[in-house]
Amino acid sequence: MARPERPCDYLVETARARERWERIRAPRVPRHSASEGAENFSGSFRALGKIAYSGSRVSASVVDLNSGKTLVAIDDRIVLPTASIGKVLLLIEVSARMTARDVSGFGILDKTAEDVVVGAGLWQQLQVPTLPVADLAALVGATSDNLATNILLRHVGLHAVRARTESLGLVRTALLDLVRDRRGPDEAPQLSVGSTAELSWLFGALARNEIVDPVTSQRVLGWLSQNSDLSLVASAFGLDPLSHRGFDHETLLINKTGIDSGVRSEAGALRGSGRAVAYAVSVQFNDENLGSRMRVLEALRMVGVDLLEYVHQPRRESVPRHP
């Protein structure tokens, strides 16, 4: 039977509820493990450990979406800058308002000079002066559009995004501010921050359709499925950056990256032929030269290699033993 074209329909095979706080708050130690005692993610540990010993701050979390088992936990509770990953929280708020038929979830918004910033995005290059709310959210999902982010954020209000974040139970992850070209002493030092434990939970919950409700979750996943940035962890997956909404060699990805000076972060959900995972990796480093940056990128790609290998391993079904 052919698989449906709609993205994210097969990221997980179950939708059973899990006690999130027990998982987040349970004692953790750095480890790499898998079912049947097989070792996995050793390459990731070596690569991330190497840049950590060189002075970078490293955090990582990988969770099997079907079993709920934590596969990787490396300082996954510490709070690090996550740059544009915090825009996912804005998309959740916008999607929730659309589901609730709130008038603020619809309408057409104007491009304003005060919200224009350099960097990511297409709208600042386009002639069209107004766009619907849903189109702006699609631009944020596809290109991490900074102008669209600022317009949406002023529209719904940062306070509303923070309230939504708290209602999800996230205490170490937040969108802190608008996107700015420069940050002064009276402004938040980062666009967003987060812990990888919470970010991997967030993407797992989105994949299970548990963020607000299934319609809200699926809409956010649809926006994120258009993400064209596969330069970090996802660089190892062999996908077309401009067209990967469906299965490609039995691989399906939903992800969001965060890139800033000295910050490289990615969170996502990945399904392969045998398994599915939610993951998050953040690195804060001294971006003093190209060599430093390339070492971080190589480490993140190594995480992707291990993730790809894991999700394409067949799951071993338990066989009942007869007396």
From TrEMBL:
SUPFAM superfamilies: beta-lactamase/transpeptidase-like. GO terms for molecular function: beta-lactamase activity. It comes from the Bacteria. Residues 60-282 form the Beta-lactamase class A catalytic domain. Pfam families: Beta-lactamase2. GO terms for biological process: beta-lactam antibiotic catabolic process; response to antibiotic. PANTHER family: BETA-LACTAMASE (PTHR35333), BETA-LACTAMASE-TYPE TRANSPEPTIDASE FOLD CONTAINING PROTEIN (PTHR35333:SF3). This is Beta-lactamase class A. It comes from Salinibacterium xinjiangense.
